[in-house]
Records
---
Amino acid sequence: MSPASGRVRFGVVVFPGSNCDTDAHHAISTFPDATAQYLWHKDTDLAGVDAVILPGGFSYGDYLRCGAIARFSPIMQAVRDFAADGGLVIGICNGFQILVESGLLPGGLLRNMGLKFVCRYVNLRVENPATPFTHTCREGDLLRIIVKHNEGNYAVDPTTLAQMKARGQIVLRYADAHGKLTPAANPNGSVENIAGICNETFNVFGMMPHPENSVEAHMAGGTDGRTIFQAMIDSALGRAEVKA
Amino acid sequence: MNVRVYVTPKKGILDPQGATVERALPNLGFSGVSDVRIGKFIEFRLDPPPGTTLEQARATVDEMCRKLLANPIIEDFTFTVDEG
Amino acid sequence: MNVRVYVTPKKGILDPQGATVERALPNLGFSGVSDVRIGKFIEFRLDPPPGTTLEQARATVDEMCRKLLANPIIEDFTFTVDEG
Amino acid sequence: MTSDYVSRRADVDAAVKLGLTADEYAHICEIQGGEPTYVELAVYSLMWSEHCSYKHSKPVLSRFPTSGPRVLQGPGENAGVVDVGDGWAVAMKVESHNHPSAVEPFQGAATGVGGIVRDIFTMGARPIVSCDSLRFGELDEPRQRYLLDGVVGGIAHYGNCLGIPTVCGEVYFEPSYEGNCLVNAMAAGLLRADGIVRAKAAGIGNHVVLIGNKTGRDGIGGASVLASQEFDETLEEKRPSVQVGDPFTEKKLIEACLELLHGRLVVSMQDLGAAGLTSSSSEMASKGMVGLDIHADRVPLREADMEPWEIMISESQERMLSIVAPAKLAAVREVCERWDLDCTVIGEVTDTKMLRIWWHGEVVGDIPARRLADEAPIVRTPSVKPAYLVDDPVAVTDAGYPPAADLGAALAELLAAPNVADKRWAWEQYDYIVQANTMQIPGGDAAVLRIKGTPRGIAFTNDCNGRQCYLDPYRGAKAAVAEAARNLSCAGALPVAVTDCLNFGNPEKGDIFWQFEQAVEGMAQACEALDTPVVSGNVSFYNESFGKAIYPTPMVGMLGLYDDVSVHIDHSFKDEGDVVLLLGPDGAWIDGSEYQKVHYGRVEGRIPDVDLEAERRLQAALRAAIGRRLLKSAHDCAEGGLAVALAECAIGSGVNGGTRYADPEAAGAAGRWRGADIGLPEALLAAPGQPPGAAGRPDLALFGEAPTRVVVTCAADDVGTLETLLADVPHRRIGVVTGEDLRCTMAGNELFSVPVSALCAAYESLPDRLA
Ligand SMILES: Nc1ncnc2c1ncn2[C@@H]1O[C@H](COP(=O)(O)OP(=O)(O)O)[C@@H](O)[C@H]1O
Ligand SMILES: [Mg+2]
């Protein structure tokens, strides 16, 4: 896929209750080779965007289960079709929750082990750099990015987990400052410190931490989140050869 | 019709809330409690089109549970439908 | 003993979850649903000291509900205790 | 044919049951030209309550300076508005939710956030900041831990869902708050300076439109005597007086209302807060000098069988009232539909100047709006100096205060004290980064945010030391303003405006009223001297339990500005070899200090008075130095005195992006801890104005408290330039940043030397106390 304009067009889906939609939009605007536009949850097509962001927040108040109601939004059918065609979709936090509720990603996200919302910088160890979302990294790189959620405790049955590991679908894990996967480094009790996963075809990615809040050097969050979006941009522009 | 849906964390899936409550109870002086599982209890009225049988209504509720009220990957559910 | 506790939002109190689910259902093709209330469903095993009567066990569970499992200011609860 | 609602009239007994006095009832009869209907009485009883009418506080509040070149809107609207440059303005306000939080901490605090946020976006401002100032009893009480847990959880639940960063706050624990916790929620929003919306009804014939949640019997517990006693015996006994927050609906309201306001689809807007529809409609009518007809039977209900008076006074959350021209109604409905919000025409603007309440075609209440909303009879309480202060307190002397034997241990003890210890446990539950404006996260002196698209920025802080206000309400309140300004100046921001929440006991008592007057006087003087007018605020009286009042707690929320926000600094030590300076006068007092409370278990004495002129000079010099990028860190000396301030600077060095390195070993290995070698001059022991007992007491030099003191660091090369800039401000070089221990000597004698990692462990021990 190589957008004609030379700039990758990101669509940021706005659900009622999304609240990191503007942050995602802003983050993309800091990349010279990308533009962002909002997509309304009641829309039925993606307006020709090259990549989709399902942003963080509390779609439908996170009532019932996070992401449970949003997944029925009209736009989600278009997102499903787009993903089936190999389009790049990233779900961040609530977006990740919507992707698992939609069945676009395996597993589920439970209440944090500590039963409290947690807003904290974490270290993410890159487990699989051969994805359209991480090819800018090397295996074992540590990214310092903020998490902020109440339900980020990833759970999946052992059989599926084993398959996911074998295929390299585990993309990011919570680690300590030395890259060790310790329980203390895990902010939510997620199985095997999982922080981000891909689907089997590596074009749909969900992560609990918020790369969009780490894109500007002068802000509190630093810049480690840029690499994720840069990877997506390069992939969409066909600049990167990413094995799937 | 009155519908009651009971959603519980799937067996084998961690239940952070249940685990925390189980740990808290002895400190409050309650002993002998185990296997705490915390789920959801959903009640509603269902007024199906006239002529709907109880069986049909149950099928509708089952579908509602599967699609929305529970997430079968992490949750189990049961329900009751009473006429009235 | 097997205990099941049903916690519901008190009558008259706002239940934003229930209201939001109720609003969502018609869009999913489920009509005729009203009065949705969402609460908690808690199950656990209770192994009281030998010689405890069912009455005593019920009193204990009642106290557990009041103190921890439900918030009596905004929630009602009921429960069942089965021997077994 | 008239219904019961009109034919039955309320007598004085009913009025008294609703909390009105016989005099007030007589006044009502006079205004109404006879006995009021029950609906009218219910409406009066709420509008003339202390909460809505400010009947005790109004004359005293007029003492505050409220104007200035930057003030675009002072007190009197939903929020104050301050010009911040480049065509931008900031709306700010604080509100208390003390009593609801004491009953149900989670929902009480949550709805407190919801209420203050509505005050902000009603002005046409996009809410960008939320702050919370909290007070509880001592933590060893399980009930207090329960309250703390619930309140923090409720604030997190609501604020996080709205996507408004909670960037600053404070938490104090004192026995006086045991039966009456304080939950003060502050919020601020950004708007165009020419886009301020005022809550004024206008345009005869325009629609009155209710937007948002349905109306239930929330928060009408107090008035339910009407139902049970007189009106309708069949109504349910139990009424939920606890309000449950629905942040999802409020998030949709924010988006929809800002769209309506920015698109000029509505004439004006007002949130429904205390006294619900009654206060919002009467205030809008009064401000616009028009009348409003409200058809209570058209209000969408959550419970079918509500009475008109219940509908008028219900405090159901997440509702907005707006005035809409008929031609714009369809467009307004369209926006509300898009956001899945109810939108109902419930009345119209009239030229009668009356608030007229209709019920199925009949007028059941007809009240002059202005008299209801703005002319509640003022109550004057004669003030009396409290018994505990009748003999003017004197500064404490050595007697009964043997110096701590191990100063390092005393420092650790202070760092672990709940009032000093790191509050990360609380603020980690808040999303402090959403909206991508946060430059300085919680944990420092002030929160700093940028204004996107400009070089500008803003800073916020909340401050009030209730213990000091108890010992001297005048000096303590003055100190609260000075400290708030100092916190902003430490971050490099220019303090420009105040919003305040005045939490006191029962104002009908002379001694409480005296505390109130004294505190307002102290605040007013400090606000004048520091050029920080009061643009909005809130008064919370009756904070008592079992007849005992809380410490007087005049909480100060302050806004600071940057023309160039990139100059901002934080409090943590930066580089090996940086020079440490102490700015401000010598001398520190044990009176009212944390050291006095923690180490000696006492609260007494005479707290020092802030020299406002010295304060102003110090802060100006500090900001000038930061503006010229001469400083690497700056930190205010507050609870725990100089030693705690130094320890916090050192502990802060182990922080990266808000997270402390999880294990101190890793931090050490990464060379992240920055200790310091501090040599204190003996002059600190015999400062002018200090009681003779302080001589020879290094512990007081370390832990004593005094206003107007700041610890700063700068590169060794810059000290000379800095000292020139500090010419008219007392200052001393007291050490250098070095190593990984905090070491302190006086005249060659070591006072203490402690690894920073150990100080950090003490500082982070709060969660252990909550388990
Ligand atoms: N202590 C105070 N200092 C300054 N202004 C105050 C103070 N208390 C109340 N006000 C102002 O009085 C008005 C009424 O306050 P309040 O009843 O809290 O408003 P609302 O009900 O809209 O939240 C507001 O404009 C508020 O800013
Ligand atoms: Mg208001």
Note: The two ends of chain A are 14 Å apart (CA to CA).
---
Amino acid sequence: MNAMSGKVPAKAVRQIEGVAIRFTGDSGDGMQLTGTKFTEATALAGNELATLPDYPAEIRAPAGTLAGVSGFQIHFSSKSVRTPADHPDVLVAFNPAALRANIDDVRPGGMVIVNSNSFTDKSLKRAGYAEDPRPSLRDRYAMVEIPLTRLNREVLKDLDISMRDADRCKNFFALGLMYWLYHRPMEPTERWLENRFKGDLLEANLRVLRAGHAFGETTELLPVSYIVPKAKIQPGVYRNVTGNTALAWGIVAAGALMQKDVFLGAYPITPASDVLHEVARHRHFGVKTFQAEDEISAISAAIGASFAGVLSVTTTSGPGFVLKQEALGLAVMAELPLVVIDIQRAGPSTGMPTKIEQADLLLALYGRNSDSPMPVIAPLSPGDCFYTVLEAFEWAVKYMTPVVVLSNGHLANSSEPWRIPDIETLSRPRITHWTDAKTFQPYARNPETLARPWAIPGTPGLEHRIGGLAKEQTTGNVSYDPENNEQMIRLRAEKVARIAVDIPPIEIDGPESGELLVVGWGGTFGAITSAVEAARVDGKPVSSIQLRHLNPFPTNLEQILRRFDKILVPELNQGQLVRLLRSEFLVPAIGMNKVRGQPFLIEELRARIDELLSEETSP
Amino acid sequence: MNAMSGKVPAKAVRQIEGVAIRFTGDSGDGMQLTGTKFTEATALAGNELATLPDYPAEIRAPAGTLAGVSGFQIHFSSKSVRTPADHPDVLVAFNPAALRANIDDVRPGGMVIVNSNSFTDKSLKRAGYAEDPRPSLRDRYAMVEIPLTRLNREVLKDLDISMRDADRCKNFFALGLMYWLYHRPMEPTERWLENRFKGDLLEANLRVLRAGHAFGETTELLPVSYIVPKAKIQPGVYRNVTGNTALAWGIVAAGALMQKDVFLGAYPITPASDVLHEVARHRHFGVKTFQAEDEISAISAAIGASFAGVLSVTTTSGPGFVLKQEALGLAVMAELPLVVIDIQRAGPSTGMPTKIEQADLLLALYGRNSDSPMPVIAPLSPGDCFYTVLEAFEWAVKYMTPVVVLSNGHLANSSEPWRIPDIETLSRPRITHWTDAKTFQPYARNPETLARPWAIPGTPGLEHRIGGLAKEQTTGNVSYDPENNEQMIRLRAEKVARIAVDIPPIEIDGPESGELLVVGWGGTFGAITSAVEAARVDGKPVSSIQLRHLNPFPTNLEQILRRFDKILVPELNQGQLVRLLRSEFLVPAIGMNKVRGQPFLIEELRARIDELLSEETSP
Amino acid sequence: MTDHFGKLTSKDFASDQDIRWCPGCGDYSVLANVQRVMPELGIPRENFVFVSGIGCSSRFPYYMNTYGFHTIHGRAPAFATGIKASRPDLSVWVVTGDGDGLSIGGNHLLHTIRRNIDIQILLFNNRVYGLTKGQYSPTSPIGMRTQSTPDGSIDHPIDPLAFALGAGATFVARTIDVDGPHLQQMLRRAHSHPGTALIEILQNCPVYNDNEWIEVEDRKSRINAALVLEDGEPLLFGSEDQRRGIRLHDGIPTVVELQKGEDPIAAGVAVHNERTQTPAYAFALASLKRPEFPLPIGVFRAVETATYDALLQGQVADAIVKRGAGSLYDLLHSGDTWTVGPS
Amino acid sequence: MTDHFGKLTSKDFASDQDIRWCPGCGDYSVLANVQRVMPELGIPRENFVFVSGIGCSSRFPYYMNTYGFHTIHGRAPAFATGIKASRPDLSVWVVTGDGDGLSIGGNHLLHTIRRNIDIQILLFNNRVYGLTKGQYSPTSPIGMRTQSTPDGSIDHPIDPLAFALGAGATFVARTIDVDGPHLQQMLRRAHSHPGTALIEILQNCPVYNDNEWIEVEDRKSRINAALVLEDGEPLLFGSEDQRRGIRLHDGIPTVVELQKGEDPIAAGVAVHNERTQTPAYAFALASLKRPEFPLPIGVFRAVETATYDALLQGQVADAIVKRGAGSLYDLLHSGDTWTVGPS
Ligand SMILES: Cc1ncc(C[n+]2csc(CCOP(=O)(O)OP(=O)(O)O)c2C)c(N)n1
Ligand SMILES: Cc1ncc(C[n+]2csc(CCOP(=O)(O)OP(=O)(O)O)c2C)c(N)n1
Ligand code: SF4
Ligand code: SF4
Ligand SMILES: [Mg+2]
Ligand SMILES: [Mg+2]
């Protein structure tokens, strides 16, 4: 707490368990940066945290409109934190549009900090307010109205910078104020500013940051500041990662750990492009990125690279994933290792590209002509994206199969503090390419994994041809033999099924059996676990499991399902996993489906859990 | 029986219920033509019949090899016929390769007619026979060895045609012989020859046809000829149709009945190309065909045509159907009428393009990003393809939705006698385009069907924009509103679900309840019904239903399923419908799956039925 | 509602949707000019259809008060083909970007052009993927640093017009977002061309690729940087006192410096003829690249040949003349049939 | 097994698979000639990869005893791109047809060519879809009657080489299925070209489009029907007593009739230069169409510029030089981190 060293706060300090703050403003107001800096400071302050950025769909929507509002929510606590929280306790709104777009989310009675200078007639109109909303809000929220623009300009009036540049600093004024309000350290941000700016701009930013802090100390608008004690956190070195960064690093790490070059084929698409961007920065790992002309080319090139003997991967989102299916079918037939990452977004069709869904599960399983089984994994959190990619690569090369990773737009862009793994503890599968020409058969199978050999060009005596036509067992020659065809189809299915032996048994959160089991998959982990744990704290007999492995399922899944009276399957789609569970295990699982482009709220999950538990159990 | 008028057969005549004959030879031997002519004659003779052509996968495989064998099977009877029969009673083999490729299918003790001149060392070797197989076959089959090449040449020796042309006639010698053997009329074929050939070639063909017939009368190799009495057939005008022709005519008929121009966008692919070919021949119906650069363009153009206000359709097979999925998602979002015909083939990937499967059902339902429900219909027989297309168009325009038709390579190429419908009895839905500018809203919905209006360019005052982004209810404007998005997704699903009211209740073949229900879908109708009926004749308590409507299901399906102890779902895939039934109704349906590129045999279905019925019923 | 008897104005072509482009985007100017030209074309508003793919530029149809279809990425020309082939009475305009039209959609553009279907295609070339936030596009220059190419792009760029001519285009033109009169003239020309008319519009993306075309957008530098094509005129550029021309000899374009008053034709400067039958001529123009050559602006090629939609419609009409309008009864009863009587 | 110390022969490049083309198909001759050239290229057999799409021609890899990948329809260039980009040490050959490469696969061909990745592409042009039994293809002439065009096709054909040049091709050539020596020469030239080398092979499909190229396949008619390109030689064709040449003036090719003994260059006949920088020259050659002009055969263009695979490999190498080989530890610890001690 150096920022305050030497000064004893003259005002009241209250200790709280945690708080969720949402910074909102126009896209030009720097909300993402403000949120990121606050997050860094919070991580260093030792809290558990989760964040959620929210960008406008348009590149540059007209200033001051609802379409242009950008937001960043951070939830931090001295206890465990798994979601950015349903409702912010504090809203910081830089303009009326930001207020209007966000006020309904704020916890009743929460704090609302606004820039009072921004409430001009023009900007109210732009935001679609018929009249100034503040008077009516004052009853319902703790309104803190600060003349932010004016205060900020005053601090900078003697500097030789334009008014525009001056005004663009005001997010750091607010940041300084929030640092004061929650006792966050200032140095990391100061250090960052010093690396980033110089001259008058540096001076300006530093000044307003400190002025904001000082304003907190003196203003009567904020009589109390808050301390959020450190959380109990597993020791280690931490950093923030978004899901997309973790995916990208997983890709780079796979090559480093398996000592292989990596090839990434991709075509830009929201919200997957950032994975391509991040991976492209690391050519010195022997990683090549290829921005293809379309998704079909991207995956085709990746399959080609796999045939050629490097680790290969293709990244995309919904509509692009659809386009890759024909080539994926070939990868199934050719039995080549490939990782396909689909960062699901809200559909159908173009849908709401920046919004959230998890509705490509059935597509991943069934999106190809004829039966062509493929393993599917879905990460549970931003940091888990890293491990998911490593696991996907491991499966791909061990079983000689394409593997699908289903992330989503929520994981992609939200970040969490991530304990950096000890590299020595990460698995380093040894890849062996076939070399013995005497015994070589392109489709001979490893009796344990059923994998065929990975025999790569450049190996003398192993010249062979593969393709999408039905293949004879062992030789891989084209074959139209009916018996052989059936056996090959069964073998490929069996190969994928056998991956189950590599999947650890799934662990139940809560009692091992009972009245209600909540089953989620992938990125809804935080919300579901939070809701279920909260329900248990209230004495409700409910447990949960969160599936990472969607195909094959963990081997103990069936037993677990059978131990509960009711099964609830919350999904951000119209019911996909629930169909799989019902058809596979004939259990009367009930779907809970949300397709609003938003993540689950803990409270809505909680409500459904309570409702189910209070229903009469039907026979 | 004019062909025999004036002559009393000197030999024994036996009456039989029915028979299955398979004509086989090299691709150059004219087997398809022989089979077709025999079929026509048989239809005119008043029998029920079913046929199955079997082409080699290669365009022109080397003569005399197994790869080049072509076949045509016809099953005809005085009783009901639903499949081409599991095993031919009679095999006609023009060369050793044809014998080798087909002999194992022949019913034990069946008749095998071979061209004895073709058993040269060279051709035996080409066929992969180490020695002449005939001696060993004589014990197991009624071998009829005819020096076909020689006899044929003799008949033609005084004509001025080349040896090659002479040899190419020999299929008509065999045809004449078979006409004699089964008392088929010769005139239709003679008439056809007269329209087709002239001069020496006509003379040659007529001569050998008649010579074959005469040979039958005189040869001692065939002591008996057979009469198959007329079947009881619904009165009417009949013709043969293949599934593909019926699909094509359904497309043309839809336009004629609805008084609309038709647009077909397609990219050639086996076994769908013939639909394009056939439709292209009927431009005078105001039907336009567009051979696109790929499947994506084909469907995109079709959707464009639909937006422009014509009836539109796109035809394809497996891999091409995969490529169409992204655009199909747009059609769901745009809520435009479109018929998509997928003629399923054996996969995955390129697989065995000329072989049979029915494995694109889950693809049709789930092959797109996010939930995008779409009705699916599957024809039960070649002739049913016609009605299926009409029904699909009716749904498409009534509900403003894309509709998928799932045919398969078996229906596509096999033919059945088809009672030509009385055109007056066909439904003629009136299409209304919105015209009233005052009340127009692009996404206002018909309260009954939930369809939006079909408002087409050229209508003053109805100018509006549609697209793949999430849409506001009623206005269709782009909307990112969460609530609205959820409602629109639900409305689209509800719209498809409501189609169920147009689906007639499904009828059970057999008792209304009992021990075992066999549930099939689409083109396996003939085999399943035959097997189940045969089992019932043997006193087994088994019923069957064959689903044409896969989404939505007929409304009485659930009740029916619940009335049986066991449910068996035979499919030419690894288990697709069975998954849907299990997840939808939580019934313990059991799959029976075959992926050999071949249709079900009646006997294998029968065996499984018997097995299930003899098992102890588990609780 | 517009009165269909009165003359339409550009306002009648503006929809009620909020425009969602960044401030300063070149797309605004194109939109305004398209809205200005539409009323002049003598076509009822309800007969216009604007079709687009996905991209910033592809939002265009939302802002036009005509029929519009914002389809999927890269496929707009295929949708437009279906519209025009089935309804030749409509005036169909495709709006696409350098990514939409030349990356994922290159093949549809190719085939649409070669079929010569009678539509207009406006290709907004900002040499970047705007909507997905600034990756390089197929027209981006080698070495361009973007998020996806932090070390610089290594793909040789495509020239949209050379590509179109390679595909057999019958009409290609190039114009500039901010040059209203020229842009309008190109729109009119494209509209009056029977067959596929492709206009490359050099468009500024101030956010991700600012000033990419400044040399020709700027009126001052344009004199030397652009070669304004005028039918029947020699290929001249440069200021009065520094006139230069283009010579096309042995298939190789060269710059000819002209003395004051020198006759360009005598000096070997080629004379522009849009209707030159061989595409080789227009291709030679399309091969002129900065900085060695000026960038040609205007109509490169405008030759007439049968359009796909007309030929298709003709086949239908011919078939009806030859065979009579189709009779369903005849179709179903064609070939061999037989009658089964009541038994 | 081949002895890798002995010299390979064409037999070493024949696989054990039965060939499944129709008797008389032009593909046989191409296969034989490819198998003949391979051993001469000084590359170990295991370093060859043949990649194809779907079509009769695309079965090619099955018959080559090298590494081979028979992929999906139209995408072979993309697969090849992945192979070559990740393994620049391999010699990668794409085999495609006019349908596979120019219909469904046109976009991948376009982008592969513009990237100039160092592979060879053999495009078998029989102007028909063979495998799917004879529909017209993107190179089929207008009016061609096929099963899908009973009234005649109405699409203007694409010229594969004009298309490739429009895409910025650095090497394009045309040859004939049955002309072994010329075909072999083109294969060698394509192989030695750094960058994408496209060879259009005029191929006969006796079953669905017999004699499409008979004018140039036939040695007699070829004299007048073909223009055999020779680097540094004037563009001449025709028999001794009827010599003609091609002039390229003002961007417009014309035929010049030469008197006996007349100097072609003086008569304005252009001299062939494969290395002409501007693509306008080669495009002019590609625009020569029968029957007005002879069909050029040989190398149209062969210019050197950086290849995609080399540039990509270079970026990796540079990055390692500049930043050292990647350290996973450093990556994971980059940026802001903090340490949580044991509590
Ligand atoms: C199938 C698919 N792949 C990728 C995308 C993502 N995407 C949308 S627009 C675009 C590129 C747009 O570039 P351009 O056409 O140049 O348009 P601009 O935004 O520059 O006007 C991409 C890659 C998509 N929407 N759909
Ligand atoms: C996605 C997909 N669409 C269509 C097909 C069907 N198909 C296979 S090959 C082919 C055309 C082949 O023509 P071409 O490339 O000219 O090869 P050729 O047979 O003439 O050598 C088509 C349409 C396919 N295999 N896959
Ligand atoms: S990103 Fe560029 S092209 Fe897109 S709207 Fe903004 S300025 Fe225009
Ligand atoms: S169909 Fe034509 S291209 Fe194909 S193998 Fe036969 S002859 Fe050759
Ligand atoms: Mg762009
Ligand atoms: Mg071809």
Note: The domain at 10-212 of chain C is CATH 3.40.50.970 (Rossmann fold).
